[in-house]
Design brief:
The complex is a heterodimer of chains A (about 110) and B (about 110). Chain A is mainly β and about 110 residues long. Helices cover about 0% and strands about 55% of the residues of chain A. Classes of the chains: A mainly beta (about 110), B mainly beta (about 110).
């Protein structure tokens, strides 16, 4: 089955700096890659996703890049703000409807003032 | 997401007890899921259901059972709870907008088995 590895497990950046979180996946058939943000005491919330036919996708300060050859994808957050502090999870799915997601182990991002 | 609710939010129980966690949604989605989250690990799929008559096992279904009482309700049961089932449990729902099942998560239930 699919295996998703996520690095780093913790990341501390200063406000205004950029943050990058990286994930690798094992199943070359995977074709959908969402990123979730989990704030304390809440469930994960989808923040951005990308399909395998796209190399990059941006939404304001957040971007995701995908390298299918190397089987890795990354989350980029620019101009970080304190409210970006949370745990971020990557996921991958090879199921055509993306119903069965395999999650990474999470990255705790701390944005310091 | 307020459209996906889970009860209870916290539960402490003893080994051997039967426990039911409930999930309700007002999103009108057909698909519902139960996940387990352990510290330092990602979310692991326990069971999922594509409609009221469809139930499927996920990665870690042993020791769990589910019931899809209606489109809006999906319950997870631990028939005889054990301490290593102590975890955070999330329910999720999805639709197929654009051909992708975007999953929306509830707030979670923290379960402790003593």
């Amino acid at each position: 089955g699919e295996n998703v590895e996520q690095h780093p497990s913790t990341l501390s950046v200063q406000e205004g700096d950029s943050a990058v979180i990286k994930c690798t996946y094992s199943d070359s058939a995977s074709n959908y890659f969402p990123w979730y943000k989990q704030e304390l005491g809440k469930g994960p919330q989808l923040i951005i996703d990308i399909r395998s036919n796209v190399g990059e996708k941006k939404d304001q300060r957040i971007a995701v890049t995908l390298n299918k050859t190397a089987k890795h994808f990354s989350l980029h957050i620019t101009e970080t703000q304190p409210e970006d502090s949370a745990v971020y999870f990557c996921a991958a799915s090879g199921d055509i409807t993306a119903s069965k997601l395999t999650f990474g182990t999470g990255t705790r991002l701390q944005v310091t003032l | 997401d307020a459209d996906v609710t889970q009860t209870p939010r916290n539960r402490i129980t003893k080994t051997g007890k039967r426990i039911m966690l409930e999930c309700s949604q007002t999103k009108g989605h057909d698909r519902m899921y139960w996940y387990r989250q352990d510290p330092g690990l990602g979310l692991q799929l326990i069971y999922y259901s594509f409609d009221v008559k469809d139930i499927n096992k996920g990665e870690i279904s042993d020791g769990y059972s589910v019931s899809r009482q209606a489109q809006a309700k999906f319950s997870l049961s631990l028939e005889s709870a054990i301490p290593n089932q102590t975890a955070l449990y999330f329910c999720a729902t999805s639709d197929r907008t654009g051909g992708i099942d975007t999953q929306y998560f509830g707030p979670g239930t923290r379960l402790t088995v003593l």
